[in-house]
Design a protein that fits this description.
The chain is built from six helices and 24 strands. It folds into two domains: 276 residues, Oxidoreductase, molybdopterin-binding domain (Sulfite Oxidase, Chain A, domain 2, Alpha-Beta Complex), CATH 3.90.420; 113 residues, Immunoglobulin-like (Sandwich), CATH 2.60.40. It is mainly β and 398 residues long.
């Protein structure tokens, strides 16, 4: 089934409405019914929704009604919170012994695995980079992120089921989705990732938080690579190409890349595969949800501090530390039990503050010794990708 037929079939199919705990009676025409009205609408075409802290902090597992949305173009028929039937096929071509089309109805019968993981746009926190020099792109604040559970079939199991064998020259898996450009200046979206990574931890996701994957989040089938930024998690998956090298598609080069060498804010970069890195592995990062930035507290009264931390899953998070003296000294917090290497780790602490204005700094540390830089400006890049500097909130004790 080709892409246009996929869209037409999906649009005409009988739809099952996805239940959400915080559904509302009235929705903006630009926001899918089933999405919380508290989400920030950044653009309607393509659809981009951001999750404010008040919603992100409310649950460790981000409900799909609260989850951010980042689409590039096309697929207007799929921008809703309803699920789609598992119809059509997933094509495998390229450097394989026998190109194959695998029915999604057969995929639906296979054993599933589930992973709790952070889903985050690599442009999250872009506003911080934009303070230094203007950056084009989605004007993310801090809400291009969520912690969710995806379930589906392991790519390794899928390949075994198809009987397809990759040729020894195959080093990358390139994924294509059903969305298509709707304007003459748009480019079709596809992404390449290392084949060994796809086989070791990749999932063909069919469920989100225990229910059929909503269309706006990539249903009926989405590529998921835990630990990678969201640009890799191709929605409405229809085709795999096994290749010897990365695609030269715009969204692989020059987009979604950062320079290997430091550059001055505002400096242009002519990206090549050699002088840049793809936005793959998520950088170590942390957030403080309470107290909120700009809040007023009672002087001398103990207050709770809480938030979350995460990384790319390659090393355990061993601590989250906070400072109230601009980083001269650091205090330990309590980490919750791990829900898996790719998931949010919640942290809590408590403190008292004397009367006056205060700043609270937060940083995470993992078993590889990685932590967050004090000054994120060191990693400015033209795309505004990968911000992970220490977060600071300002409070006033009265």
């Amino acid at each position: 089934m080709d892409r246009r037929n996929f869209l037409a079939t999906s649009a005409a199919a009988s739809l099952a409405v996805h239940h959400v705990s915080n559904a509302v009676a009235v929705q903006s025409q630009s926001v899918p019914v089933g999405k919380d009205v508290g989400l920030k609408l950044i653009t309607a075409d393509p659809l981009v929704l951001e999750t404010p802290d008040s919603l992100l902090a409310a649950n460790r597992i981000t409900p799909s009604s609260y989850l951010f949305v980042r689409n590039h173009h096309g697929a207007k028929q799929l921008e809703d919170m309803q699920s789609r039937p598992m119809t059509g096929e997933l094509e495998i071509t390229g450097l394989v012994d026998k190109p194959t089309r695998f029915p999604l109805t057969e995929l639906a019968k296979m054993a599933k695995t589930e992973v709790e993981m952070v889903l985050q746009c690599s442009g999250n926190f872009r506003f911080q980079f934009s303070k230094l020099s203007p950056i084009k792109g989605t004007p993310w604040n801090k809400g291009g992120i969520g912690n969710v559970r995806f379930a589906g079939v392991r790519i390794s199991d899928f390949l075994k089921a198809t009987g397809v064998t990759a040729l020894k020259e195959a080093k990358y898996l390139t994924a294509e989705g059903a969305d298509q450009p709707e304007k003459k200046d748009q480019i079709d979206y596809e992404k390449s990732i290392p084949l060994d990574v796809a086989i070791s931890r990749g999932i063909l996701a069919t469920e989100l938080n225990g229910v059929a994957l909503p269309a706006v989040h990539g249903g009926p089938l989405r590529l998921i690579i835990p630990g990678y930024y969201g640009n890799v998690q191709v929605k409405w998956l229809t085709k795999f190409r096994l290749e010897a090298s990365e695609t030269v598609n715009f969204f692989q080069l020059p987009d979604y890349r950062t320079p290997k060498q430091r550059i001055e804010p505002g400096a242009p970069v002519e990206y090549t595969f050699e002088n840049s890195d793809p936005n793959f592995d998520m950088k170590i990062n942390s957030r403080i949800f309470a107290p909120e930035d700009g809040s007023m507290i009672a002087a001398g009264k103990k207050i709770d501090l809480r938030g979350v931390a995460w990384n790319d899953g390659s090393a355990d998070l061993i601590s989250v530390e906070w400072s109230q003296d601009q980083g001269a000294s650091w205090n330990s917090s309590r980490l919750s039990a791990s829900a898996g290497p790719y998931a949010f780790r919640e942290w809590t602490s408590s403190a008292t503050f004397e009367k006056g204005e205060h700043s609270i700094l937060i940083r995470a540390v993992d078993a590889f010794g990685r932590t967050q830089p004090m000054d994120g400006r060191l990693f400015w890049n033209p795309g505004g990708y990968g911000w992970n500097a220490i977060e600071k909130v300002r409070i006033t004790a009265v």
